[in-house]
Design goal:
This protein is α/β, with parallel strands linked by helices and 389 residues long. The chain is built from six helices and 28 strands. α3 packs across α4.
Length: 389
């Protein structure tokens, strides 16, 4: 499956559009950060040798604010008032924080209570990043802190992999889109809205392909256009082995598809393949099954298309806060749970509600999937692997 989900086109975007994208090339610093020696504290720039016999009184010779040019020198027995981030004045080799000082009423002198070492509260040039340093290698996932670093090194146009356009389509005469009253046998189309939100939340671009009725020609046209205009397509429903469904019939005809039964619960039925090279994810129709299969199969594929080097999520270890019992059926169960951080850095997890594949409210209350191996289940206090959502 992942072998057919290759990273897409590369482009350059502004820093304001780069969140959650992945760099396509390495980024280097054109200069050092910080670009000059500056103070980490509000206080007084001094010569540390002058404080050897502290407490001492020093002559005040000026003030330097952040952003000011340091046109004052610090000589023997002198001090310059300085604000956080301001450049260090010539002659000074340390900063004493304001809490250790008392300024005279006429502000011509300052009493310093304690001595400080050379370099005290000074952020030297290049302390964070040196000139020419590779700040981020290629394939770096850009989170908010990464964008802050980009801004600090003056990189406002960032080379990245494009956001894949992921089309989401629903089919079925039983589905109703919108708030209108349901007819006999109808249900609201929830999966499409859920899947679009999941796609957008991970940094890809969800494309709403709408609701298509159970008409073979309309489904064929919709799928063909979706494959031509999107980088990947997600459908839900009609993937069970016993189904006779127009989606299955059409995709079998126009695509290179595999129709599978996966030994998991929920989300046992799954389809995957390509139409004219475009990956197609056929997810089950039950709402919870659709979301679980998205997390296990579609999300890793889309992440790889975005350029992520490790597209498959890594479980974290938690503790069952209550029994997670089940019967043996040859499948791995993915239980919907709420995981609460504990004081020891662990997670305590318990069911978030009913575990039926139609019970979407329990999925809404969950923030993790508990991986419950085949067998009798997991008892309270025992370890459990969790996929955080």
């Amino acid at each position: 499956m992942l072998a057919k989900c290759e990273p897409g086109r590369t482009t350059t975007v502004s820093i304001g559009e780069a969140a959650d994208l992945v760099t396509s090339t390495e980024l280097k610093a054109a200069g050092p950060i910080p670009p000059f020696d500056n103070t980490a504290m509000d206080g007084f720039a001094i010569r540390s040798a002058d404080l050897a016999d502290a407490p001492v009184t020093l002559e005040m010779v000026g003030t330097i604010a952040a952003g000011a040019i340091p046109d004052i020198s610090v000589g023997q027995g002198q001090a310059v008032r300085i604000m956080t981030g301001a450049p260090m004045p010539p002659g000074a080799d340390a900063v004493v924080m304001v809490e250790l000082t008392t300024m005279s009423e006429d502000e011509t002198s300052v009493d310093v209570a304690e001595s400080v070492p050379v370099g005290n509260h000074i952020r030297p040039t290049g302390d964070d990043v040196v000139e020419g340093q590779v700040v981020f290698p290629a394939r770096t996932h850009l989170r908010p802190a990464h964008l802050g670093v980009c801004a600090s090194i003056g990189v406002y146009d960032i080379p990245v992999f494009e956001r894949p356009r992921v089309g989401v389509i629903s089919t079925g005469d039983e589905l109703l889109d919108g708030p209108g009253p349901l007819g006999v046998g109808q249900i609201h189309d929830s999966n499409r809205h859920t899947l679009l939100a999941l796609v957008n939340a991970m940094g890809a671009t969800g494309v709403d392909l709408g609701l298509v009725p159970d008409d073979e020609d309309q489904i064929r046209d919709a799928m063909t256009q979706a494959a031509a205009n999107c980088d990947a397509v997600i459908t839900s429903g009609g993937v069970s082995m016993g189904d006779f469904d127009y989606v299955k019939k059409v995709l079998t005809e126009i695509g290179d598809m595999a129709w599978m039964q996966v030994a998991i619960k929920p989300a046992k039925p799954l389809a995957f393949g390509t139409v004219d090279g475009t990956p197609i994810f056929g997810l089950p129709g039950n709402p919870v099954s659709s979301m679980v299969s998205f997390e296990l199969f579609a999300r890793p594929g889309i992440r790889k298309m975005m350029g992520h080097l490790e597209p498959i999520p890594t479980p974290v270890r938690g503790i069952a806060a209550a029994d997670m019992l089940r019967g043996s059926d040859g499948k791995t169960h993915f239980a919907r749970v709420h995981a609460t951080p504990t004081n020891d850095g662990n997670y305590a997890a318990s069911f978030s509600g009913g575990q039926g594949s139609h019970q979407l409210s329990a999925m809404a209350a969950a923030n993790a999937l508990a991986i419950v191996p085949d067998g009798d289940g997991i008892r309270a206090g025992e370890p459990v692997d969790l996929l955080l959502l």
